[in-house]
Amino acid sequence: MNSNPAYNLLSKNKEIIDFEDICAEYEESERLGIVRLFIKKDSRYIGLIDYTLNNPKDQTPWVSLFVIHQRFQGAGYSMSAHGLLEDVIRRESHTKLRLAVHQENDQGIKFWNKLGYEPFKEVVYEGRQHCCLEKFL
Question: Where do the domains of the chain lie?
Fold first, then answer.
């Protein structure tokens, strides 16, 4: 979670998030019924994906967190992990997947566009502008 301080600054207003932040985020995810998948390379954890199959606001699957350790970015792990997530979503008979990206996160928006996501609306969440993207599977 702390391998990309620029993202932490964008999303949490601080470069390093501490154990209490991680615990609070995990507890909120548990309360909301979010599924957490860990991404491993050999025996080492290199990332995680949080998602829900049924967002209560639109009854659609949403990715709420997708993180790859900065050292492993650009090596195809994100693409592989996302492909496996798409398989999970399809097996549950869903035909689209949504997520929100901080409007200022140009690298993130570029990544999701490369995977076939397209914008469908903009929202303000926790005082920050976000671009909501969706992909039809």
Answer: 5-136
